Amino acid sequence: MQTRLSMADSDNSVLMVIDIQERLTTAMPAGVRDRVIEQVSVLLTAAESLSLPVIVTEQYPKGLGPTEADLKNLLPAGTPVVEKTRFSSAAVKEVSEFLSKSGRKQVFLAGMETHICVLQTALGLLEMGYDVFVIEDAVSSRAKGNQFNALQRLRLAGAVITNVESTMFEWLADASHPAFKKLSKLIV
Q1: Which of 36, 67, 69, 74 is the most exposed place for a label (fewest CB within 10 A)?
Q2: Dihedrals phi, psi of 138, to nearest 5 degrees
């Protein structure tokens, strides 16, 4: 398990987008859907620019629909989209195999809902020995209290709670990085 002082390392990072699906996003409070889509769009753009592996999960897509089209259009080529019924993505064979094959130890989580699938995935990944970063402004729950509770539990469990801007600038590490100008323009 990492310490609370862990810093993002683009050479050791994987971005996991959990269950940002059409029917689930419409259940989110006003403004929350747009914020999450906007922030995850920034993360996907950064991941592609920095050649970070990305994996997407969809919880029971027959019932909750596919991943939001705005995000699907930004996925790097070859990004796996894994259908699941398990709440913990860490417990899904295709996901654990993808992470193992990547050889990377830092997993950054964005998605829905913070207190269900994000929480269970993070706890599972921590048990598997991964350094887990939950990107607070790129996750959501229908009820703010549920999200707050989940983030508190995750902090206590050893996950790093971070934000999109911190994550992106840690991945860049230096203003002289070739992708710095492009990616810094995404922060509003």
Answers
A1: 69
A2: -125, 20
